[in-house]
């Protein structure tokens, strides 16, 4: 009897021990007292009333493109450093939300150094189209052999003393020269016909509900802008001399019905410094790759002003577009509401802004202010200014 009692006691203890083991192995509580946390095996259940580390937000992919129809042979293009990653992340998110989630166009990133893993990871997670990452060949990001580097260094020193913005920077000059003459010839860009340039920390304020690339193609446009203004004279003292010399050498490249009146108030003798701001551009890559544009760039490059002055790619592109394209191949994208420090383009007209879910403050609109060149562009093209523009002139 004593033997069987002991036997039963062993069985009871063994069952209790097994029960305890089972409880520990299936328990969802952690060791933090008072805060039950679900483990990963049970996190998909939403019926639990215990606190969870995140609310359900599980989908890892972007929704599919919703816009029907064909796509153009087009890409976004961004020149950036690895250190620009969070600033370009902001820009990408805005472009995707306002436009590209409906179209899923590709995105090409270019850099004078190798892109690092973090840059690639963050940017490819945010983009709905394919991403491509290219390194710029050394010969497109260095002093050409005809440049006197001592003379160029002296210019930078003078500009530093005069406190001219980016006046003492070598890399800024390589950047401006690259954007002026080379980005459209990068091997990754050769696959495409159309580009939309995006810089870090820009904003888009309104929904864009149509394919801007298709608009360009259907309407035979080659170059476009949203903001225009006067360039700092100190950065381009002899740019116009070079442009005039080019026009003399190559009259065959000058368009008949051009936009010279945007650039000059005296029929081309002097430059008024108006230019389209090139941190935003939608344009045709084949035009930039044309003999006309390459002849123009080579002439400017030989003259050395990218290094002996500080020629920006904005006036360089603008002069080219204004003299080599007929007026009707240029386009002002009023409907692309845009910010790049320090200027905003916010479309004039409340109804338009409401209809397109804009979030810009119309008081910030630069279009009709004194330093903007948009009025010139409107006058040149006999365009009627939108109702209410006077109220935005302060
Ligand atoms: N890879 C690379 N990209 C550069 C370099 N400098 C500028 N960029 C890129 O070239 C573009 C223009 O440069 P920004 O510094 O924005 O020039 P900016 O618009 O005149 O001046 P900000 O008012 O500072 O924006 C941006 O897309 C930059 O990320 C560089 O040294 N290397
Ligand atoms: Mg910028």
UniProtKB/TrEMBL annotation:
Mind listing the UniProt keywords for this protein, alphabetically?
Glycosyltransferase, Membrane, Transferase, Transmembrane, Transmembrane helix
Superkingdom is Eukaryota
| Taxonomic lineage of the native organism | Eukaryota, Fungi, Dikarya, Ascomycota, Pezizomycotina
Q: Would you name any one GO CC term?
A: Golgi apparatus
**What is the active site of this protein?**
281
Bilayer-spanning residue ranges: 7-25
Q: Name one GO molecular function term.
A: alpha-1,2-mannosyltransferase activity
Pfam families assigned to the protein according to its UniProt record, in alphabetical order: Glyco_transf_15
**Which residue windows does the record flag with biased composition (Low complexity)?**
40-49
- Keyword Glycoprotein: yes or no? no
User: Which residues lie within the region annotated Disordered?
Assistant: 35-69
The record's listing under InterPro entries reads: Glyco_trans_15 (IPR002685), Nucleotide-diphossugar_trans (IPR029044)
**The keyword Chaperone appears for this protein:** no
Q: Name one GO biological process term.
A: protein O-linked glycosylation
What family is reported? Belongs to the glycosyltransferase 15 family.
Record-given protein name: Glycolipid 2-alpha-mannosyltransferase
* Listed Polar residues bias regions: 50-60
Which Gene3D superfamilies does the entry link to? Spore Coat Polysaccharide Biosynthesis Protein SpsA, Chain A
């Amino acid at each position: 009897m004593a033997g069987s009692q002991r036997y039963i006691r062993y069985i009871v203890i063994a069952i209790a021990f097994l029960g305890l083991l089972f409880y520990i192995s299936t328990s969802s509580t952690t060791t933090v007292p008072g805060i039950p946390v679900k483990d990963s095996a049970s996190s998909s259940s939403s019926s639990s009333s215990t606190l969870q580390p995140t609310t359900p937000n599980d989908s890892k992919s972007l929704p599919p493109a919703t816009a029907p129809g064909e796509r153009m042979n087009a890409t976004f293009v961004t020149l950036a450093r690895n250190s620009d990653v969070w600033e370009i992340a902001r820009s990408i998110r805005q472009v995707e939300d306002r436009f590209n989630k409906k179209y899923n166009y590709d995105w090409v990133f270019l850099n004078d150094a190798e892109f690092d893993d973090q840059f690639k990871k963050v940017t490819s997670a945010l983009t709905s189209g394919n991403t491509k990452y290219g390194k710029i060949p050394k010969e497109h990001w260095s002093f050409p052999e005809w440049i006197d580097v001592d003379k160029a260094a002296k210019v930078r020193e003078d500009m530093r003393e005069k406190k001219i913005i980016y006046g003492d920077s070598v890399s800024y000059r390589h950047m401006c020269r690259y954007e002026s003459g080379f980005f459209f010839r990068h091997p990754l860009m050769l696959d495409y016909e159309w580009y939309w340039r995006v810089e870090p920390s820009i904003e888009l304020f309104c929904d864009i509900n149509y394919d801007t690339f298709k608009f360009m193609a259907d309407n035979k446009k080659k170059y476009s802008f949203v903001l225009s203004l006067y360039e700092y004279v100190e950065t381009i003292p002899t740019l116009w001399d070079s442009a005039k010399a080019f026009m003399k050498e190559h009259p065959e490249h000058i368009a008949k019905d051009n936009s010279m009146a945007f650039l000059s108030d005296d029929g081309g003798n002097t430059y008024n410094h108006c230019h389209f701001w090139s941190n935003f551009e939608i344009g045709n890559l084949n035009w930039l790759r044309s003999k006309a544009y390459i002849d123009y760039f080579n002439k400017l490059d030989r003259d050395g002003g990218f290094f002996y002055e500080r020629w920006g790619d904005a006036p360089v592109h603008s002069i080219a577009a204004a003299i080599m394209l007929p007026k009707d191949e240029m386009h002002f994208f009023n409907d692309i509401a845009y910010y790049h420090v320090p200027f905003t383009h916010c479309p004039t007209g409340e109804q338009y802004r409401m209809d397109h879910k804009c979030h810009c403050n119309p008081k910030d609109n630069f279009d009709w202010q004194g330093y903007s060149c948009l009025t010139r562009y409107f006058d040149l093209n006999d365009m009627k200014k939108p109702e209410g523009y006077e109220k935005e002139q302060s």
